[in-house]
Structure formats: C-alpha cells, structure tokens
Amino acid sequence: MKEKQNNKSKKIELTFVSNLSDQKFIGEQSGNHDGDKFIESLNTKIAEILTNTMENFGNDWIVSFENLIIKLKFREAYEILNSNQDRLQFCTNTNVLNLLLKMDLEILNKVERLNFLKNAIALSHKFHLPHITSNYVNRILHEFSSELEPLLLENLELEQANQAARDKKFNLAYNLYNQILTKTAENSTKAWIYRGLSIIAPTPTEYERYAMLSFDLFLTSGNKEQAITELIGLSNFYFNIDPEKCIFYINEAINILQPDNPLNKERQGSLRFHLAKTYLEQNKIEKAKSAIDESINLRENLIGNLQELCSTYYLAKEISQKLGNNDEVQLYSEKIDKIHQSINDPIFNLKIEVITSIENFKTIPIEFLSKIENQPDVSLIISSYILFGLNKNLPNHERFKFLDLAIEEISKIKIDTEILSLAYYSLGKLYKEDNNSPKSIEFILKSLDIHPYRLSAIADLINLYIEMELWSDLTKFLNSKIEIYGEYSHLNYLKALALHKNGNETEALALLSKLDGDQNLKPKIDDLILECVKNGGTKPVFQSIVKPNSFNIFDFRSILCECAESISTKSRMHFWKYNKEKRKHSWIQSPEETAKQLIIQYLTGKLSYIDFEILEEIKVSAGRMDLYIKGATQSFIIELKICGESYSSTYALTGEDQLLHYMKGKKLYTAFLFVFDGRTRDQGKHFIETKSIGEYTIYTIVCDLNPNVL
C-alpha cells in the first residue's frame, strides 16, 4: 500500500493473520508511519473490513434459510444449508441454531439426515451450547453409530462423556472416557480425554496428573493452542495453592509460543498480560510491571486488537498507580481515552468499567443500572448485579436483592462455575455485615463447594467458626482443606486448636508433635502444647511412620544445609565453654559427639515420614563411619569434623580421605562431609562445596560455630 501525503511517498506493507475460531484479523505493518493518524485510521479500517467481510461470508445465507424455514419449506432449507456448509465455521449469528431446531428431519432421507446432524453438531459446538450439542449427538449415535467413520465416532462418544461430566455424573463420565481411551490410537483424542478426566478428578494430584498428560499429547499432536490452554488452566488451579507453580505454568506457556506472526504476537501479548495480572494479584508489583511492559511491546503496534490493547493499558495504569508513577498513569489514561474515541462499541466500554471495578473490589453507582438494562451480554448483567451487592452505600435489603438477581440470572444460563461461587461468597460477606453469622457460614460453604480454593473465603469461614466456637465444624472443615492442600503447618495448628477446645487434648498433642517447620508458629504451638498437657493430654511416644516415598541426593543436601543453619542459629554456644581467666572460648569435651546427636535429632524429625534408618559407628575395614543413612532407594555416609581453635582445617579435610575409604568399602559413590567450623576468621575457607574424585562425589556442609558471633 502506498500513501502520498505532504509530497512524500510512504510505502507501508500490511500483513494480516486470521484466527478462524473467532474470525478475528490481527495485522501489523512494516515501514514507519511516524504516528500518521490517517494511516493509523486506515489500518484500523482495513482490519474492520476484513472482519466484516468474513462475518458476512459466514452469515449472508441465513436470511434465505430463515425464510424457507418460516414457510415450512424444509427440503429447500436443507439444500441452502448443505450448499453453504463450508461457511459454517465462519458463522457468527447464533439465531441459526433456533432455525435448525425447527427443521423437520423426517422429510430428509437417511444420508441427508446424517449430514444435517453433523452440521448441527458443528454449529452448536462452535457456539458453546452443550445441551443442544448433546441432543444431536445422542440422535446421531442412536441412528447411525454403525455407519460412522471411526474418528468421528470417537469424537461423538467423547462429547457424550463430556456431557456426563458437565451434568456431574462423574462415574458415568469416568467410564465413558476410559472406554474411548482403551480403543483410540489418536493422540489428539487422548489429549481431549485426559482433559475431561482432569476436570472430574477427585483430588488436586489427580487433576495435575491428567492435565499434564493432556498438555503433553496436545503439544506432541501439534495443537499448541490447546496445549497453552491446559497450562493456563494449571496456572489458574495453583493460583491460591502454590504461587510459584502458578507462575511456572504461565511462563511455560509463553515459552512454547513463538511470536512469529501478528496473531501469535497478540497471543503472546495476552499471555504476558495474564502473567502481569497474576503477579499483581500476588502483590509482586515490580514483576507485574515488567510483564505488562512486555505485553504492551507486543500488542501496541498490531492492527485489529484495540479492545485487547485497551485492557492492557488499563492494567498498566493500575500497576503504575501502585508504584506511584504518576507520569505513566497520565500516559496510560491518555492512551485509553484515545482508544475509547476510536472504538464505537458501548458494550465494550461497559465491560471495561465492570471488569475494572471487580478487579479492584470497587463498587459501581446505582445509576449504572440504566446502562446495562436490556443488554444482550448476560455475563455483564450478572457481574453488575454482584457489584451492586458489594456497594456498601446501598441499604442492605437492596444489596440482597441484587445478589438474588445475580443468582437468578446465573440459574437461567445454567452456569455453575466461578461467577456463581463469587455470588454466594458475596452473600456470605453481606450476611456477616448484617450480623447473621449462621447464614454467612451457609453461603460461604456454598461458594467453596463450587470453588474450593478461594483463600479469602476459607479464611473468612475459619474466623466465623472460631468466633462462634463451632469447634467440631471447624475440625471437619479443616480436614477437608488438608485433603486439598496437604499437611500444612498452619492448617494443622488450627485443627489442633479446635481439638483442644473440644477437649481432645491427646489427639491435639499428637497433631502438634508433627509440626516442626514453621518458626512463626512455634510460640503458638509451644503455648498450645502446654495448655493440652495442663488439661491432662499426654504426648504420644514417637513411632516411625513408613511411607513409600524416599528422598533424592539434592533433597538430602538441602536438609543437611537446613540442619547446619538450625544448629548455628539455635545451638552454637552448646559447643563452647568460656574461660574467664583467659577470656576466651574453648570446645566442650567431645564436641563431635554433641554434633552427631544434634544431627540425629534434626534428621529424625525432618524425615519422620520417610522410610529410613540412622546407624552410628558402623565398622568399615579399619575405621568407623560417624553416620550411615540408609533409605529405601538411597544410602549416604556422613563424616563429622570439627574445625577451629585446637582443630585445624587440615584435620577437618582428612574427613575427605576417610569418606573415600568408607565409600569404597560400602560400594557407595556419594557422601557428605559435615564440618563444624568454629574459626573466628576465614569461615568455610579451604572447603569445597562439591568435590569429585574419579567416580566418587563428596558434598561438604559447613556449619558456622564462631563463638564470637552474638
């Protein structure tokens, strides 16, 4: 394209790529237009023309089809549908499904009926209307199952399984998925099966396992779009459970998508937008800033993505506000205003207002109600009702009314997902404000039944149980959360507190004895142990709990490093005695024995759920190993050495020779030298963290025991 302006010739080349799933054209230009508003406007217009052309191509046959259906000329209507079936993938007019439902199939012959049902399934699936899809699938399987090609039959059976999952018939869905899995050879089909199994998985571990199988198969089948969808699903799943995993999966999605064309640049920008939003929700503002800047860099020079770019600027503005960068806030406000002026879409502007309010937990004024009345976008209406319910400037009876309206609208469209969970949670919070704690508990539980990982709801419910002294209910609830989150210290502490308050002192003590890692909780744990003992509870005798899991070399090295830090911090002065006359510290008698017992205590507590043994002074040839750790799959030798004051570093380093001798005798190839370094200077000097001697490896752990450190 060549444009002439101000007597200068500008050559601008445009490239557009279409996403057939939503008929959206994304383009970019080569050549610099220096902010030429005419060229910017022209580029946007070209994108609109392309989108409208594709939309018209997909929809312009529907008027003729509708007229024939109205006149009950079903055979002629079928001919129109059949001759335009290549256009169905571009169709955007959902009214066509209402017309299909009026079709009299009995006037068609068998071949025609089969073809009609295939087209009806394709359209209903495209418009995400699963119950209509299910009806057509059941009919085609009932009448034509023996005549269908194998891959189509598998896909239809898969849709039946998906419908069973949507209807919460989980046992039926599980059996249907597994039936297809046993007979299909298609990796792409297996990927969809594993996605279905992940959705109905009863535990987080099963969910992740199936989701990762789905991801692997989508990726190896060349379907990167669905592979990325799976990773984003995993990221969302772990948002409230494991923030690091949440971010990890988003980054993995970013890594597998190359921004090699305009559409993929927009997708990459979308992923980085999602990353920025997640960082912001985790209150990692600087990282959110970096991610949103990358999203803007990808999206800003594209054509046909103004709405997406506007959302990006909104998020960038919010991040800049939190960072106190007023200049950037002003810049993004101007960019948003500029886009608003060029987007002639009132629904989009309303959505932006509602979404921004929800994300920032802000209310919207009651006057907003007139703007959303009679809008076709039901999700916009529902979200607005929920926001009215959160508006503390309204009387409580009005807020209850709006939340009831939200739930009523949700029931009409049969949504049973996060937005319903949010509505129930909002009701729970409102009942709490209204001093009705029992009702608050009822609706927060309903919310968690749908979305069990909403941490704010979990925290609110725990506080309500404690406030109302419902200790049995709290114990039951915590048991359900421990099944999801695992044996986290804080949850176990709260459970022990509930057991104590309910008079189960010995059971509470048994639970408290497992808590060993959270230093922030330690004072509370110690106080609660004392209370339980005062009330007649007895500490359980320690019994090793054998589990099938074991530890690897890096796990064990990390544990020994933690042990060294713990001893250095808490037990440093146990190794020293002070001579007042000489005004100096000297080692206690047999410091290595003290060191050994401290290590044994730490490992016994840290590895109490792993099948292992700690053996002392095992004879090997002419020597004796200090400690021999024998696990289910790994065994390690630990040699202890003292360094400092009367013990030289040369003496400590003799431990390496001893270990090499022991390893050869026990036919082991990995060992640990644990040095207790009491030097006042040159801490850790001469010791190598990882030393390789032929095929043998020695890891050295240094524990700082400098007595002059306060």
Automatic annotation (TrEMBL):
Q: Which InterPro entries match?
A: TPR-like_helical_dom_sf, TPR_rpt
Q: Domain of life here?
A: Bacteria
Which keywords describe this protein according to UniProt? TPR repeat
TPR repeats, residue ranges: 421-454
Q: Which residues form a coiled coil?
A: none
Record keyword Metal-binding present: no
Q: What is the name of the protein in this document?
A: Uncharacterized protein
What organism is recorded for this protein?
Leptospira vanthielii serovar Holland str. Waz Holland = ATCC 700522
